Amino acid sequence: MKFSYYPGCTLKTKAQELEKFALNSAAALGVELEEQKEWQCCGAVYPLAEDEIGTKLSSVRALAEAAQKNEKLITLCAACHHVIKRVNEDMKTKDDVKNKVNNYLQLAQDYQGEAEVIHYLEMLRDEIGFDKLAEKVTNPLTNRKIGAYYGCLLLRPAETMNFDDPENPSIIEEFIKALGATPVKYPYRTECCGGYLSLDNKELAQEMTDNIMKSALKNEVEELVTACPLCKYNLENKNGKIAISYFTELLAEALGVKE
Amino acid sequence: MQRIGVFVCWCGTNIAGTVDIDQVKQAAEKIPGVVNVQDYQYMCSEVGQNLIKNAIKEQKLDRVVIASCSPRMHEATFRKAAKSAGLNPYLVEIANIREQCSWVHKNKEEATEKAIALVRAAVAKATLNTELVPGEIGVEPRALEIGGGIAGIQTALDIAEAGYKVDIIEKTPSIGGKMAQIDKTFPTLDCSACILTPKMVDASTHPNINLYTYSEVEAVQGYVGNFEVTIRQKARSVNADKCTGCGICTDKCPSKKAESEFDEGLRKRGAIYIPFPQAVPNVPVIDREECLKFKTGKCGLCERVCPSGAIEFNQEDTLVTQKYGAIVVATGYDLINLDKFGEYPYTEHPDVITSLEFERLTSAAGPTAGKFLRPSNGNKPKKVVFVQCVGSRDKSSRGKTYCSKICCMYTAKHAMLIKEKYPEIEVYVFYIDVRTPGKNFDEFQRRAVEEYGVNYIKGMVGKVFPEGDKLQVHGVDALSSETLIIDADMVVLAAATKAKDDAQELGRKLSISTDANNFFTEAHPKLRPVETHSAGIYLAGACQGPKDIPETVAQSSAAAAKAIGLLNKGKLVNNPCVSQVDEQICSGCLACTKMCPYEAISSQVIEVKEQGKIVKKTVAHVNEALCQGCGGCTVTCRAGALDLKGFMNRQILAEVDAICL
Amino acid sequence: MGRMKIIPDAKKKELQQILEISGENVKDCMQCGKCTAGCPASSSMDILPHQVIRLLQLGQLDKVANSQTIWSCASCFTCTTRCPRNIDLAKLMEAVRLTIIRSKGSSRLKADDVPGKIDPKMPQQAIVSGFRKYNK
Ligand SMILES: Cc1cc2nc3c(=O)[nH]c(=O)nc-3n(C[C@H](O)[C@H](O)[C@H](O)COP(=O)(O)OP(=O)(O)OC[C@H]3O[C@@H](n4cnc5c(N)ncnc54)[C@H](O)[C@@H]3O)c2cc1C
Ligand code: SF4
Ligand code: SF4
Question: What is the mean pLDDT for each group of 10 consecutive residues in chain B (661 residues)?
Fold first, then answer.
């Protein structure tokens, strides 16, 4: 199984573990992730304005490269995934964006949304399968009560992201189960952590993460996992009681490849 | 040479204001064959009609052209007048100089010119008109009711009382529909069972009504007055004639894992079961998916305990074919599935329920014997939150764009039912708009607020967070713009109504149409609300759109009146303007059979003489009772063997020539 | 409190611009309040999300543009996902923000402010997002 792989800035700096464990695990699972050669920052937030084109170009470059290789594009960071997936949807459905972007990029072949971008978790669920994954677990995380923190970017808007039920998702819980641990559902697992508000309105972001952590604690969550570096930062900011890690770290641990 | 009379109507100033009547008259007089031309202010009035009648008699007219309004308006009037003067009504022709001329033009000169052209065309056609005589078809004096909810029951009773036989086909094991599940009914709060059960019994005992429960429509053939319906009676596995309804079998059945449909899954039922105590007929049915005998071959306990030997495991579905003059569709509605509304954790939390589940929870015959208790722990709730419009007025892919119409009223009812039994329970209702038009409806809803102290909050609930043994309801009061949090014990969701999933399929069998939301379409939203576009098929109840019981019953009686009117005719006159096949020209390609939307054309083998020998030949054959005279086949036929009586190709061409040449 | 003057066409041009940037039609909103009811950032908003739409419907763009609300919105798309009228309110919030920060010298976040706002653990993603959201 071979995929094009888009890492994104944060994975090369503050979130190196997210990537390291993902790559180790992929190797253990027999999945080849080939990092794209000249990827550029996705911009971290999807440009919501209908008239923005420039900020979508880097995503299209990544997508076009994958399309050209005829490979699916794998992402790890929830933010990158969100941006690239939505830009891809624009390239499929919005003629105006499609025309302008192609005019600008002058690729060998016009890009029209042919590539498929999937998140690493989707790769585990849909390409490998959670039951197959469970079979490969050498070090089951028995007796650990782990909560999934989904956040916003993987789930919403639901129709474009098409990742899971936006109000009652289950993919990370199934993932946790496959690793031998006990998933704990708590009501705030899809609530927003404040995201980039932590830059400009720290108080509000803290209030938002506070609600999430309270909900997790009340439901006796012992560890939290996430796929987003900014979520991890925001959640860690507030609390000391619950350990927060990237889902890939758990994966590497269960597969016995967490050096 | 014909003797044609032309009658030009002023229609007050409607026509005369834009068309120069005198010029039209002068032009008409010059057309060959026209022997008499008259005008009048209102030709449709009695005076106008007499003018025509007298002219027919005195001038011995053999064709009549009336230049007036659209034939849709008064063709029938003028044909009747002609008939009473002894002229075949199909020798009357209308030139529409109102809708097609005076109303759409301003310039008098041009309008007059056009009116003259239209009159010339009508005269040209009239010249070629022939006498047509409508045929007659018999009407089977029996009606079919599809669906045995309150709509089906009411219509059946009305038709039966008028003296006609009625059969009811009900899909489930008992008649009653959703009304049987309801506890009390707005706006009077009388007990639903008390008013419905007697009607159910009346339906089952009426000498003119015959029930096919646990049955479905398999196929429909025929046409108005003469439908032929095949009914599939599903195997009940219980012989209804032998069964006394004692219920021993249902008590003893060891397989009790199935969820009771009647109790909305709040109670279990056996594999052999009677849906509810007042079921009609009071005969159990075996759910073969649940029955151990069918699943494993072992068990058969019911057969052993049945004192009347009524259990028949080897029963099979049976097909019955019956003739009907009229059909009434009354298949009702459903509530949408709430799986996609994860913000209200209906699928996750037992204390989040639908409004229909609420009905069962307050019903004295329900799973809690009428005590209002939390399904999660059996305790009495302290705070209950109702959320209206869950999926209604919702343009997203999760919901329905329309207003479900009944929820505002039943939610007010639910709130009052709680308050009446337990005044200490706090009740909140989140609404977007309260819509309660109807007799005594708004007063009813206001009573909930003013007398019972129900807290109505204009706004929506964003999400319900289960926390400990509470449900934290996050909402907004849009009027004060305060965000709210309510620590509720129960949340009741007014789920949107929807058409039955199989509505389209049934519609196809019956050749009746459904709208964008899969509700059956009425022939005219205002003037023909209970008819469909297929003659002889009528609509009653919520299958045509969301409705409460008063409206359902009113519509049901209206549908019954229409059906009785049809059955009462005994014979139907059919439109003589139907297609006819020239068998000499027909090559038997049968392209017309495929295009006919009414399935009125079939093939037949005839014997013809060819070069002295008798040979067999396949030709198209038109069923005059089914043909609606649309004319589609006449343009499909390559050989030109088909022609529409009253609108023959040469008649149409004569009109065109009269206008163009 | 003085009376609000509703002159439907007063802000026609600006409202048209909002509509074009966001691609959303504020007339679709029936004021159910579901957006507000679920908004995780509402506690620090001076005008609630459903009021934002209502004010836009009434042509009161200035009130929205001068609010704290647009800067409290986290673009979490909770409202977007739940709106029964299919309105993407997050896009409208963005459009109003953009009308402000796109005009010269009105960026909310200046490069000089950044050092004071970050800490060593903060991921790049936050800084990039902040710049994209608050600066043009
Ligand atoms: C929670 C709730 C509370 C309500 N409370 C009130 C109230 O207090 N007062 C009031 O006026 N209204 C109330 N209503 C509305 C009421 O339920 C409807 O007005 C009424 O049931 C409509 O009757 P119907 O016969 O048209 O449809 P239904 O009751 O749905 O009956 C249709 C029947 O047709 C059968 N059927 C369906 N498809 C087929 C098929 N293909 N072949 C054969 N049979 C078929 C069904 O099994 C069913 O028996 C309430 C509704 C709800 C959801
Ligand atoms: S949820 Fe949608 S319809 Fe309801 S108030 Fe908000 S924007 Fe308007
Ligand atoms: S996108 Fe903004 S307005 Fe909408 S729910 Fe999230 S924070 Fe609130």
Answer: 94 96 97 96 96 96 96 93 96 97 96 97 96 92 98 98 98 98 95 96 98 98 93 97 95 96 96 97 97 95 96 97 98 97 96 98 94 95 98 97 98 98 97 97 98 98 96 97 98 98 97 96 92 95 98 98 97 91 93 89 91 91 87 92 94 94 75
Residue B614 structural domain = 579-645
Neighbours of B119 (CB within 10 A): 26
Distance C82 CA to ligand 2 centre (A): 8
Q: What is the pLDDT of residue B610?
A: 83
Show the domain range for C129.
Answer: 31-107+117-134
Cβ separation A48–C91 shorter than 8 A:
yes
CA distance B647 to B103: 26
Name B191's bridge partners: B184
CB contact under 8 A, C78 and A152: yes
- Residue B622, both tokens: 């038109």
Nearest CA to ligand 3 atom 4: C79
User: Is residue B558 in a domain?
Assistant: yes
Residue C2 gets which letter from DSSP? P
Following DSSP, what letter does each residue of C49-99 receive, concatenated?
HHHHHHHHHTT-HHHHHTSSHHHH-----HHHHH-TT---HHHHHHHHHHH
| Residue contacts between A and B (CB atoms, under 8 Å) | 23
Chain B positions in Cβ-Cβ contact with residue A165 (cut-off 8 Å): 340, 342
Q: What residue's CA is closest to ligand 2, atom 4? A: C32
Contact A187 B341 (CB under 8 A): no
Cis peptide preceding A157, ω within 30 of 0 = yes
Backbone phi and psi for residue B233, each to the nearest 5 degrees, phi listed first: -95, 110
Q: Is C3 inside a domain boundary?
A: no
Q: Which domains does chain A have, with CATH numbers?
A: 2-120 (1.20.1050.140), 130-255 (3.40.50.1860)
pLDDT in tens, B435-484: 999 999 999 999 999 999 999 999 999 999 999 999 999 999 999 999 99
Whether residue B31 sits in one domain with residue B122: yes
Whether the Cβ atoms of residue C6 and residue C58 lie closer than 8 Å to each other: yes
The structure's pTM equals 0.88
- Specify the 3-state DSSP secondary structure of A25: helix
> In angstroms, what is the span from residue B523 Cα to ligand 1's centroid?
22
B374 within ligand 1 shell (Cβ under 6 A): no
- How many residues appear in chain A? 259
**DSSP secondary structure string, B595-644?**
H-TT--EEEEEEEEEETTEEEEEEEEEE-TTT-----HHHHH-SS--EEE
Asked whether the beta carbons of B390 and B335 are under 8 A apart, the reply is no
Q: Please state the ipTM of this predicted complex.
A: 0.95
B187 preceded by a cis bond (ω within 30 of 0) = yes
